[in-house]
Amino acid sequence: MKKNLQLLPLHVIAITCTLLFISACSKDNNKGKMQTYTIYTPVYKAKSEVLASINGVSTTNIEHAGKLYIKDNFIYLNELNKGIHIIDNSNPSQPTQIAFLSIPGNLDIAIKGNILYADMFTDLLALDITDPHHVTIKNTLNNFFTSRGYVNGAPSFMDDKIAVDWTEKDTAVFVQNNYPTAECNGCFFDLASSTIKSSSGVAGSMAGMVIMNDYLYSISEMHSLSIVDITNPSSPILDSSFFAGFDLQTVYPFEDKLFLGSAIGMFMYDVSDPQHPVSIGQFEHGRACDPVISDGNYAYVTLHAGDGCGGDQNELDVINIQDLVNSKLVKTYALTKPTGLCKDGNYLFVCDGTGVKIYNAINPLNLMLVHQIKSNEPYDIIAANKKALIVDADGLYQYDYSNMNNVRLLSFIAAKK
């Protein structure tokens, strides 16, 4: 089944200074006119200085929360392109921010034992978090994430320096025949009226990097999955990389299988031999933003429009994967604007529009809505042991759902922008 959707990167809706995008900025291709843009210019800092100051200020505000990871009694929350908040969740009613890892370009998190793996633009860092207040860098795989050499139209690394911030300046540019008269010089433009969005633990459904036993699997390039040997967690070794599907976005592990969400569908791999994944099937759904989870019998995929994803379809697809080679769509549920999702037992949680919908999923062909948690703009969720952690545009929520008739808010850490 195919749907006509158009994808742009989830976190990058800015318009880069290329002919293709600039031409889209002008409504009149024949006449010159003034157009207001915001120019973003990278601020660089010596890489050695950045690495030396990786232990940031523990009270750093959550501003733009991204991906979520939990291990033991700790929550690891990505701050988009800035780093990782470490939160002590020993008391879910009073979670406490205890540390902040300052990592420019960070989007993903994975943990094995006391070693945390994090991306820093193109590099993969292995960090010892035995003492979260004094994290140390154990190893680095340079140029691991090859697709992140350029971010927002500019190099993420410049010689021995790394982009740590961006300056913004609104400017009026005369556009004629689709060409702005101002020079770009490594900056990128965005319409001023636009809005910029943006052993192992448990990762959310938006994860692009996961751990299975002694191996880390990561989307290292738009179409490639890389396998990293972490038998010695402190010394990750790149084992291999291979073409795993077009426009990969997310990775979800289940038993000895990997489910890869992509812009065009879902790719499934058997990793019972961890160094040699075997393709066992795929499901095509057209171009869309696509996180995916599985319970072994069914895969659940959310598709949403807007935010650079294109198209106009917002839905939850249920795919029968009992025969992985011949997986098939068995049910589609219309939703508002779904993003992250997870499953705990017979309950399916879906972030959708202005809330998190909780379904009784005993019969995937007849999902029954049993509760809805009101929220502003939920992005991802992890639910386990009757506790749900929700990443929202407003911050981080935590709920107790031990009684579906009385789902209770336990705590909230507000985003302060």
From TrEMBL:
**What residue stretch is flagged as signal peptide?**
1-26
Cited InterPro entries:
LVIVD
This protein's source sits in the domain of life called Bacteria
Among SUPFAM superfamilies, the record links this protein to: DPP6 N-terminal domain-like (SSF82171)
Keywords of the record, alphabetical order, are: Signal
This chain belongs to the protein called LVIVD repeat-containing protein
